[in-house]
Automatic annotation (TrEMBL):
WD repeats: 184-216, 368-409, 410-451, 496-529, 538-570
Domain of life according to the entry: Eukaryota
An example Gene Ontology biological process: ribosomal small subunit assembly
InterPro entries the record matches: PWP2, Quinoprotein_ADH-like_sf, SSU_processome_Utp12, WD40/YVTN_repeat-like_dom_sf, WD40_PAC1, WD40_repeat_CS, WD40_repeat_dom_sf, WD40_rpt
Keywords: Nucleus, Repeat, WD repeat
Species this chain originates from: Crocodylus porosus
Protein name (Swiss-Prot/TrEMBL): PWP2 small subunit processome component
Small-subunit processome Utp12 domain sequence ranges: 747-851
The keyword Membrane appears for this protein: no
Length: 888
């Protein structure tokens, strides 16, 4: 079994901190999530997390005007230059100190970053081949306190920098004769945003205390005068010894030192600013400070966000209020407006919330929020289309694995959700909570239709449902009992006693009516459902049992214990068949407040969750560590270890303590964060049933690893004569079956698609019947992936139907091995079925509506014609009576 799993997507978290950025076309938004960045496609309704990660949380994102490059800067100033086309890192750089903002110039030739009280201007990378992607051009000094924001003029001639010292500085990107720098005051609090007017040097400044200043410049952009060239006569007399000094100065860049008060004599021919207006937002006290702002130059729209969750829309320069609404009770950390000015994005770091609002229609384009607290459990649906997660915030969220969006949230629980799971149908979700209830949710009507409770209040720590979906069981962590309910009636059927410690895990045998329960009393008990829930076997271990899982065929049981061991048992004979010492694979990090080393701490750690792969050959194990391990069950060896996160912003990620954080009074963490006792990266992995991808709930969110991402050259029985040109030559001779076999031997996806789509529609039956059996599985796997992107739905459905009809019986004998491929195919078909069925229902409704209208109009016309005929008959009879009277 090959394990080419790669990071696929990040769900469950949509925004953490940093600035939001719309793409140049305005259809997608870039959101920093922890130490990664997620791109939300608003029109396609999809999300995509880039497979790049910084060492710490991302605080600044700078997007190039053409949308091809992005600069990601973390908390300590380490930057990654990322290609948004290739989704890969091009260059790494360190600014040495935390960066407050990054902004490209509109022409894409320069970019400015602000750190401390300095603004640094660099040559933008990507314009030519270069050894160093980040070349410093100029360093600007002026503010006395930390810089906060940046904005450029439309022609990239000047930029403005706001500061916490209540001043705003306008700098020239070049040394203009009449503008090198200019300082603007007028505020009584830190500057939150500064914005140039369109094609002008006029500027708006917004401060934290809710004040807006309008500054007018006496010079236009065309009035900026270039500085005369320096006299180079002295340079000719320079010695060649000064070349090294020149090179050092070039690397350092030119320095421009601004002064707040300059000589009046020098300012006569310089650019001048005057404040023409000052406005104040509605103040509600010091707690409601202005926290973020954005301005759209073309439609003159100013959007401001406040600490209370309220945002205002104003029309400038008249300062007319358009809207004033509230999105939450948390601080709005970031605001961004797309290029057309129709959509406004809001980020709330306190709630982890991302909103995109269309202000003209007053409707949401996107409204997503992750779990407020830690995400503790997850489960895949049987077809792999959905993921359900439960969190410490008491919420149950359902995510679409294709789009990456949460489409329903259940909030009925009043305490932490311990476990979630799907029934075998995939349309019912069950969740167990510490509030003493087990709830069943319907995915058709999106409602809580069953609530299971115990006779006395207890906290449920584990949950299981049988393969039929009729029997629900939950384990208690305080009364040491297992409760059994009927799904149909909601009645409590039985209460099973026998364990002498908290119940840690439950699992039903997928094939037989056997329930396995694990407990802290160092035993695993097997209960027979058809024998009045009597204890069939008791498996005794050397340590407390934390997790238990059946193999998909029900013939093996995996058990994880507190001593770090994973043991395998034959449930029929209660005999141990193998064991894995996994403690050494659980590498732990050292917390900032730990008194012992990471190596010593790892000795007391263990796996807290287990899951078999779909074919039953491997088992996934995760615990309170940044690693998830995959073991081969038969060989009892570690196949691969996945590092879930490299984010050093999380505690317990480093093996050794940083001595720079130690003081004579102890760790700096005691001063900064207090003696918190968070558990680092808490990973849980229940419910992963698919072989092509697996998921893990972590501190950073819901991570999905998949076999489907990336381009991997993996040839099959490759020969020297098999080339793309030889394959196309075979196709030209209409030997389609041979061409397909050659394409799969070369195993390039685009070439396989070209060969498959070259086969005529009426030749599909003949080609399918002549394929060797070894290639049938590969063709089905390709068809499953092709359904996700290709528009040739009927063509590929014909291939699928013909292959399954011809080879269905033979494939059934290898169902265990083919299960991941069949489930992948089922997921793709199910998604198309739902999309097409919705479209068909809509078309049927429209046709019925059109027929009803046409019938109504026909009835009106027939009524009008009958009335007209009656009137004509009456007029004819009157006419005849009149003429007969005259004749008489």
């Amino acid at each position: 079994m090959k394990f080419a799993y790669r990071f696929s997507n990040l769900l469950g978290a949509v925004y953490r901190r940093g600035n939001l950025s719309f793409t140049p076309n305005g259809d997608a938004i870039l959101s920093p999530v922890g130490n990664r960045v997620t791109l939300f496609h608003l029109k396609d309704n999809k999300s995509e997390t880039f497979p790049v990660a910084t060492r710490l949380n991302v605080t600044c994102v700078g997007l190039s005007p053409d949308g091809s490059l992005a600069i990601l800067v973390d908390e300590e100033g380490a930057a990654l230059l990322v290609s948004l086309i290739m989704r890969s890192v091009i260059h790494q750089f360190h600014f040495q100190k935390p960066v407050h903002s990054v902004c490209f110039s509109p022409d894409g030739k320069k970019f400015v970053i602000t750190k401390d009280n300095v603004a640094l201007m660099y040559h933008a990378p990507g314009r030519k081949r270069e050894f160093n992607a980040f070349v410093l051009d100029k360093t600007y000094y002026g503010p006395y306190d930390e810089t906060t924001c940046i904005d450029w003029t439309d022609d990239s001639k000047c930029f403005a920098v706001g500061s916490k010292d209540m001043s705003t500085w306008v700098f020239g990107a070049e040394r203009w004769a009449n503008l090198i720098y200019y300082s603007l005051g007028g505020h009584k609090d830190a500057i939150v945003g500064c914005f140039f007017e369109e094609n002008s040097l006029n500027i708006y400044t917004v401060s934290q205390d809710g004040a807006l200043c309008v500054w007018q410049c006496d010079t236009g952009l065309d009035g900026l005068k270039p500085r005369p060239p320096k006299d180079t006569a002295k340079d000719k007399n320079k010695s060649t010894i000064d070349l090294d000094n020149d090179f050092a100065e070039q690397c350092k860049g030119e320095e421009i030192h601004g002064k707040a008060s300059t000589n009046k004599q020098e300012n006569r021919e310089k650019v001048k600013y005057s404040r023409v207006a000052k406005y104040f937002f509605n103040k509600e006290g010091d707690f409601n400070k202005l926290t973020s702002a954005a301005y759209h130059k073309k439609i003159h729209l100013l959007v401001t966000g406040f600490a209370s969750g309220v945002f205002h829309l104003h029309d400038l320069p008249e300062f007319n209020l358009i809207h004033s609404l509230s999105i939450s009770d948390q601080r709005i950390a970031s605001i961004s407006i797309n290029c057309t000015g129709d959509w406004i994005a809001f980020g709330c770091s306190g709630l982890g919330q991302l909103l995109v609002w269309e202000w003209q229609s007053e409707s949401y384009v996107l409204k997503q929020q992750g779990h407020f607290n830690s995400m503790v459990s997850l489960a895949y649906s049987p077809d792999g289309q959905y993921l359900v997660t439960g969190g410490d915030d008491g919420k149950v969220k359902v995510w679409n694995t294709s789009s990456g969006f949460c489409f329903v949230t259940f909030t009925e629980h009043t305490s932490s959700v311990a476990v979630v799971t799907f029934t075998s149908t995939g349309y019912v979700i069950l969740s167990a909570s510490l509030d003493g209830t087990v709830r069943a949710f319907d995915l058709h009507r999106y409602r809580n239709f069953r609530t299971f409770t115990s006779p006395r209040l207890t906290q449920f720590s584990c949950l299981a449902v049988d393969s039929s979906g009729e029997i629900v069981s939950a384990g208690s962590q305080d009364t040491f009992e297992i409760f059994i309910w009927s799904m149909q009636s909601g009645r409590l059927l039985d209460v099973i006693c026998g364990h002498e410690g908290p119940i840690s895990s439950l699992c039903f045998n997928p094939v037989k009516s056997i329930l396995a329960s694990a407990s802290w009393d160092k035993t695993v008990r097997l209960w027979d459902m058809f024998d009045s829930w009597r204890s069939k076997e008791t498996l005794t271990l050397n340590s407390d049992v934390l997790a238990v899982a059946f193999r998909p065929d029900g013939k093996e049981l995996a058990v994880a214990a507190l001593d770090g061991q994973i043991t395998f048992w034959d449930p029929e004979n209660a005999v141990q068949t193998g064991s894995i010492e996994g403690r050494h694979d659980l590498q732990m990090g050292r917390k900032e407040l730990d008194k012992i080393t990471a190596k010593q701490a790892a000795k007391g750690k263990s796996f807290t969750t287990l899951c078999y792969s779909a074919d039953g050959q491997s088992v996934l194990a995760g615990g309170l560590s940044k690693f998830v391990c995959i073991y081969h069950v038969k060989e009892q060896i570690l196949i691969k270890k996945f590092e879930i996160s490299c984010n050093l912003s999380l505690d317990a990620m480093e093996e050794y303590l940083d001595r720079r954080k130690m003081t004579e009074f102890g760790s700096m963490a005691l001063i900064d964060e207090g003696a918190g006792d968070e558990d680092g990266v808490a990973i849980a992995l229940p419910g992963v049933k698919r072989g092509r991808s697996w998921a893990a709930t972590t501190t950073e969110g819901l991570l999905i690893y998949s076999l489907d991402s990336g381009l991997v050259f993996d040839p099959f029985e490759l020969d020297i004569d098999i080339t793309p040109s030889s394959i196309r030559k075979v196709l030209h001779q209409k030997e389609y079956a041979k061409g397909i076999i050659m394409a799969f031997r070369l195993n390039e996806k685009k070439l396989i698609q070209e060969v498959m789509e070259t086969v005529p529609y009426n030749e599909v039956d003949v080609v399918c019947s002549s394929l060797p059996e070894v290639y049938v599985e590969k063709v089905l796997e390709f068809l499953a992936s092709a359904f996700e992107k290709s528009r040739h739905l009927e063509f590929y459905l014909t291939w699928t139907r013909r292959l399954l009809m011809l080879y269905g019986q033979k494939l059934k004998t290898r169902s265990g091995k083919l299960l991941p491929t069949i489930q992948y195919l089922q997921k793709s078909l199910q998604r198309h079925f739902e999309d097409v069925s919705k479209l068909c229902e809509w078309n049927r409704y429209n046709i019925k509506y059109a027929l009803a209208i046409s019938q109504q109009r026909g009835m009106k016309r027939s009524a009008e014609t009958s009335v007209g005929e009656e009137e004509m008959e009456e007029s004819d009879s009157d006419y005849l009576m009149e003429h007969s009277a005259v004749d008489s």
